[in-house]
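Why predict the complex rather than its parts? Because the way molecules touch one another can change local conformation, and only a joint prediction can capture that. The input here totals 561 residues.
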Amino acid sequence: MRVDIWKGSYARTILIALLIIVLSVLLYPILYNLILSFQKKHAYLPGAEFAGVSNYSSLFHDEAFWKSFLRGSIYASVSVFFQLLLGIFCAVCINNSRKGRSFFQGVVIFPYLIPTVIVVILWKWLLNSTYGLLNGNFFGTSVVWFDQNNIMRILIFISVWQFFPFVTIFVLARLRSIPQHLYQSAIADGAGPVKQFLHVTWPAIKNIVFILLLIRFIWMFTKFDIVWLLAGKGSSLTFSETLPVYAYRQTFRMFQVGMGATVSVIMLIMIVVGTYVWFRQILKRRNIS
Amino acid sequence: MTSLLRKILIRIFFIAIILVIVMPFVWMIISSVKNQEELFSKDNLFPSQISFSNYSRLFADTHFLRYLINSCFVGFMVAIISTVLATFTSYAYSRFQFRGKKILGGLTLMVYMMAPVMIVIPLYILFRALSLGNTLTSVIIAHITFVYPFAFWVMNGYIKDFPEELEKTAIIDGANFFRTFYYVIVPNLIQGITSVAVFSFILSWNDYVFARILITGDEKKTLPVGIDDMFSATVTDWGVIMAAGVIISLPVIAGYVFVSRYIDKAVHLKYT
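Output of the joint prediction:
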């Protein structure tokens, strides 16, 4: 146990109170969500009645829920897989290059930085079936990328494009801390690039990759904006409806707030588990260093 | 031989990455300065002359300026409030020893993991009950609920890195908490505070979900929502939309370049 240097100062009391107040404000929506999931409530009208677990049971009997659950899982798994693959590969390459390293590192994060709305609009323009640079304009094709057949593919593609830089940045930060002499001795032992990666790089980045897998999966599974913006208004929405979009539709199209809240509670369970794992990792690292 | 091959492969990879990442942005800029005819022509990859008519139409014919002002206001308020709150509370969290500290940290992390769509419905009902429906205040408060936990954890990384000895010296010299905070802690953490503020601004600037659901009136829309509605209008005016895209992306990229010197540190400390 470390010594508390501010023991006895009344500023200490004020700040701890502030911490607790802020946290309570943050937790309010989460707890209210929990209550809402046991209520029947219209989205715009006042008043609510207790409904027991009826929201949960009608949710589990709704075929659309299971479909969106499955679709969301596939979307999250596939897009996270490619984010990790591309992200790690990109980080290793940037780490190995001497010239232009800071330039690449700066540029690679651009897709992650700009608003999702712009990402989606930009790709809709690039892939536009008549005027798109990557479609009619340059290749002379006229593939309709945003119809029901291709919507999931294009959704995964754009998600990978937008979020792989996140992986790159974090892996790169860890790669920096690998001492150079480990590579030198690996080379002296006659290890090629693949062996170097397996024996030196991978053990060092294993933990961060696991954490990235965890948080990126949760964030892709609960991602609303990119799916909604890409397919929300079109008829292709039913073919790309993931769980958060289902929750939105229940709340603001069917006006059943309780149902939307129930979906949120299910996603919350996942987040609680994920946070527990991540937080333990943070505590472990901070105690060592 | 193999090292030469490796160099070439890396070179090729970089060109590919640059193409995949930069090309869409370059195309956005090119599209925004083309005139209406060339925008839809297959023969003109580049504009024969640079025209800013899309930009002038953006400001003259749409409510873009209104959205821009709203977004700036919300972004600055969120950045200031979150950064100040995070600096104080994160300092308290890393320096004080008290019961329930671990749970407090864990819960803050959990809130950070929450997706906007999970928080927005209860907030929407709450704001309506407080007659804050369709106000920028409601958007600011909503943004703080996800920006603050982020700011808190990043600040925490910076503070952990900061030696306690300096504060101890100040205490021995008789300074009270707030004097120490103002004269010792803040100046030493200024890099961290700056990058947290910039990233808080970016997070608020980029948000779509909260603003979409909390705002119903056109005069209160922020940029992402305003652009989405302009885009979804019956006939999409691609030139104007591309010009808007360029203007929205600029502050984000400028802000990032400004703090990129410190970002390695933030990333490294925060997630490990």
